[in-house]
Amino acid sequence: MTVALSLRGLTKSFGSGDAQRPALAPLTLQVAQGQRVAIVGHNGSGKTTLLKMAAGLLDPSGGDVLVTGQPGGSPAARAALAYLSDHPTFYDDLSLREHLEYVARLHGVADWADRADQLVAKVGLSDRVDDLPTTFSRGLRQKAAITLAFVRPFQVLLVDEPFVGLDSAGKAALLELFDDTSTRGAALLVATHELTFVNRVDRLIALADGELRYDGAPGETDVNELVFHT
Amino acid sequence: MSTTEMPVEATTTPSLGVHALRDLRARRKKNRLGELEWFEAAYQVYLVALFGGGGLLWLSSLVGDQKLSVVEAADVARNAPALLGLVAVLAVVLGLRSGSQGGPLALEAADVTHVMLSPVDRLQALLRPATQRIRSAVFVGVGLGGALGQLAGRRLPGTSFAWFGSGALFGFTVALLWVGAALVAHAIRLPLVIATVIAVVGFGWQGVALAKGIPGPANLYGSLALWGWRQHPVDVVALVVSLGLLVTGVALLARTSLDALARRSSLVTQLRFAVTMQDLRTVVLLRRQLTHDQTRARPWLRLPTRGRTNVIWRRGWHSLLRLPAGRLIRMVALAVGAGACQVAAYRGTTPAVLGTVVLTFVLGLEVLEPLSQEVDQPDRCDGLPIERGDLMVRHLLAPVVALIPFSAIAATTAALIESSKSNDASGAFAVAGLLAFPTLLAGAAGAAINIVRDAPDPFSGTNQQTFMPPEMAGFSTVLRTLVPLAVSAVGALSVVIVRQAVIHDGPNAAVPTAVRAMTAGLLVVAGVATWVRMRDRMRRSIRAFMSEGHAHTQQQRSSR
Predict the structure, then answer these.
(1) What dotted CATH number matches A3-90+138-229?
(2) Buried b / exposed e across B387-418, counting CB within 10 Å, b at 16+?
(3) Where are chain B's structural domains?
(4) Selected residue of B9, B118, B322 to mutate for chain A interface (largest A Cβ count, 10 A)
(5) How far is B34 from chain A (nearest CA, A)?
(6) What residue ranges do the domains of chain A occupy?
(7) What is the pLDDT confidence band of residue B367, given thresholds at 50, 70 and 90?
(8) CA-nearest residue of chain B to A84?
(9) What is the pLDDT of residues B227-237, one digit of tens each?
């Protein structure tokens, strides 16, 4: 089994001196190619901090990240890793189609148009593709962000609370895309409170107060207990 | 699990990404130019030219045209390099602090997500924002340096043109120093505490150099500014150092922290908008957020949990007792600065009053934190079973008491400086003691107007603003900015009144005039407090009156 994402002693503290607050205790884990991982935990348990550090958006206080064997933040790691944030950001002067073109071409995808059309159709945004995503509602913004994450190639996909604001059609489309992701061998890490999704993963990681509480198969533990009572 | 690492597939061509980046930036620039309102842009240029030119003419009239005597010119030649060197030290300090807090670059939030997380070379991606930052700093430095150099040239030996050139060169060098220091400090993740130590050492050394005539670390920079008069080839070292620092900073651009860029992106956009709207309070608030200025988790002192003290007074102290040490130090510095400016105004430099106005106004914004918090949570505020005006005016009480120690600091500063230059120490302490509190209070009154007018106005919604003609909207914005500052100026001008009384009626007139000026200042403050309390009621009455008139007119029309 090959390792797609490796976190070694990754840790984060906020503040300094007496006000220093640990957000994530040193965490070491490896995620294999094609593996589907759900990260669960109560609010403030460290899920977003973990994903942001793995994506390179947050400087760790210690430890390091390897993406497909390359140091996190290096061009090769950035080419291999996609991050779908819980707060999608868009340019206020680009339509969704122009966003798709930009992101795809930044990642070296020359023939992006067909792929973009398929994605947009899948999430039900075909009639809004020439509109500005900054004017979309919360759910439509989330759908637009999903198309941007999937229009480019990746070997590791990090996703933070993807189901918030999505309607049932959007959730179904996203789950299909997740299935495609693992089928073609990319690793998937999803931080979520959506317990129905937990049943579809190979591996469950539970965090509580920044510490690892569980790392194993989802069927072997009471997820409700882990998420709400740890 | 095997630890075999997955080979990286060559899924991307970085150069292709760079081409995409360039293409899209060019297209966005074209779109922006296409959407630019040229009339509005011309109006902005007109406003800048009007106010900038007016300000320059005013400064020019203050400087005068008379050439300095030989002795005075020699004094300038001796002290100016060390004095102007302080500007260079300030630039380094500001640059280092900016860099250690995540500056000086700011990208759009979408650029951080889409460009910085893509495999495009980060040096290439950041080169343009860095160039824009350098260009704007150089523009300000050269413009300001050139204008001030030209003014200096009117009284010092040398032609105005040469002085303009040397001033611009000084501004250019200092601007590069600031950007270079910030970029390097960011790249090497300089801790803020080290930046603060460098600031203390730098200012200390340069200050001693100025006082004792020894070489200071930034004397060469100051000397460069005198090239309109005389040229020392060794001063070029300053330019070389600035350029070297800048080149180093640019070379290290790829080490820019995404964490800092992500945090700053939205804040800087809001800050620019607030500056455009001349929204001083928002500028101060956003500056605090940019510098991680967070309130203390635990207050300096815990208030007794039991007691029957007024809840709004108590809430005010809960807020004030959580002000972080850095902010308290800044407030002390503002009070010291205000005291020093008042002495300068008393000794004849009337424009120093402007310094007092700004410093007391900002101090007021700092101390009125409880009121700001209330105004910034309108849903919470309007849900309380209390008239909003009554609530707001009660929020002024704790800050007014909190101003007393800062008034003592300002008074002591002013009295110490003044008594060191005159023989009447007791008189200096008496006048400073009388004027300090009303001056700071008036500064806070201006700040209170600035804060309270941000409260949502249920009686004149956004429609009224939307349908306002553009020329009136601009005027209204300027007026909204100037009125609070004008109120803050009432306190600061008291020292000028005392000065004029002393000039005309002798030193014995100082204390009685100070008492009268203090009374006038306090009356204005009372007026502001009344306005805060009655604002909603007055607006409600005006709105009712207008509605009544409107209905009456409609009735008359329909009866015709």
Answers:
(1) 3.40.50.300
(2) ebbebbbbbbbbbbebbeebbebbbbbbbbbb
(3) 67-262, 311-457+465-549
(4) B118
(5) 12
(6) 3-90+138-229
(7) very high
(8) B113
(9) 988 889 999 99
